[in-house]
Amino acid sequence: MAEAVKTSILRSAPLPNAASAWVPLGEPLFRSLWVAAVISYTGTWMQNVGAGWLMTQLTMSPLMVGLVQAAMTLPVFLVILPAGALADMVDRRRFLLITQGWMVLASGALGIMTLFHMVTPWVLLGFTFLLGLGSVMNDPAWQAITPEIVSPQQHAPAVALNSVGFNVARAVGPALGGMVIAAAGSGVAFLLNAASFFGVIFFLYRWKRPHFEHVETGRVTDAMLTGLRYVRGAPLVRSVLIRTGAFSLAASSLLALLPILARPHGARGYGLLLGSFGLGALAGAAVLPRVRSRLSVDGLVMFAILVFAAGTAAAGRVQSFGWLGVVLFTCGTAWIGILACLNVAAQTMSPPYLRARALSMYLLVLQGGMAIGSATWGALATRFGIPTTLLCSALALVAGLFAVRHYRLTAQELELAPAVVRD
User: What is the DSSP letter of 319?
Assistant: First the structure.
């Protein structure tokens, strides 16, 4: 699913007030990375459209289509915790160069094989898994560098601008990907995604990273255990993780099964529908500060989940392309409201020296839940059909609200100081 790919903590944070929202772009270092990141995000959405659409050309099995999203997010179970520990221990610049290079090779190889008609459903899943492996290794370190490239007073606006950039790409990338696929095929979309990473690689290569002490020395397993002990003893962290898991498991059905819903409308239609979801998310990010001023965090999450559940159920019943676009726009608006609250809570639930490890555990629950949910909903759709499965997913979202009602969310002001060693 698109959300699981490069869906990071920083991408979905709520916007600050309009007067300060764009100030971080005045800092050359952040502006360069932001532009490069938007290009990379756009390539990723093109990759997502290409992978989902190619699978529907290879097979119409809902299970296999659902496994595309699962393959991208499955690596979160394998490497996200070590990735978080490493991001707190090693030079993040070099680490990010390695992970970005890995993703270039994975998407480039898949593109070439697709052009030469060498891809089967399992080959596609295999390379999608490899690309997801690089993305998961990349995420904790990527999220943790923002405090190092902006001045301290611009940390929160910079987080918000990362959200804006991601959602701009989400609105543009799928539509652009649909046009590329319709004109030249999925292989070209994969190659364009490989090329999109080079802007970030160029930035990282030239970046003179300030020297920060390693948080810990010793073994990665020891650092992981330190993070796990903190999570076990922190009630706020447990609340964030339980709420995130309940949502991600139930909500993953819509985008996982969207390629099948969009099949009658062609590759361009699929891209436009994903673009509608992205435009909804962008609109939601714009109005979120006003809504947050009127509702509590828990109230906002509850309302947004109910809206998303209604949209999920409706997507399985709507036949016309126009109304399906409206449904996805509405779901995108609700999606950003939910993830914004969860993400801000995740960013503020741990001290700076444990930030990457705590975020890696949040990503494990978020993306892992989406991987399990995608495979589960795909299997159910194979047996019971798309409309019934999406209705069950909507009911699961509502039931989850009652199941986790005792785990309340709170979010304090962002504290994004760089992590340093503690004597």
Answer: -
Q: Is 152 exposed, middle or buried (0-12, 13-18, 19+ CB in 10 A)?
A: exposed
Instruction: Choose among 298, 1, 340: nearest CA to 162.
Output: 340
The alpha helices in 152-219, defined as continuous H runs, are 155-184, 186-196, 198-206
Q: What is the DSSP string of 41-100?
A: HHHHHHHHHHHHHHHHHH---HHHHHHHHHHHHTHHHHHHHHHHHHHTTS-HHHHHHHHH
For residue 410, pLDDT beyond 70:
no
Task: Tell whether the torsion through CA atoms of 366, 367, 372 and 375 is positive or negative.
Answer: positive
pLDDT at residue 411 tops 60: no
Looking at residue 14, the DSSP 8-state letter turns out to be: P
Q: Whole-angstrom Cα distance, residue 227 to residue 230?
A: 5
Kindly tell me the burial class for residue 85, based on how many C-beta atoms sit within 10 Å of its own C-beta (0-12, 13-18, 19 or more): buried
What is the tens place of the pLDDT at every residue in 120-156? 999 999 999 999 999 989 988 887 787 778 877 776 5
Question: DSSP character for 419?
Answer: P
∠ Cα 300 303 308 (to 5°): 120
Q: Which two tokens stand for residue 404?
A: 């986790």
Q: Contact, 103 vs 134, CB < 8 A?
A: yes
Contacts of 154 (CB under 8 A, 6+ apart): 23, 24, 27, 30
d(CA 165, CA 132): 21
CATH number belonging to domain 10-210+218-403: 1.20.1250.20
Q: What pTM was computed for the model?
A: 0.72
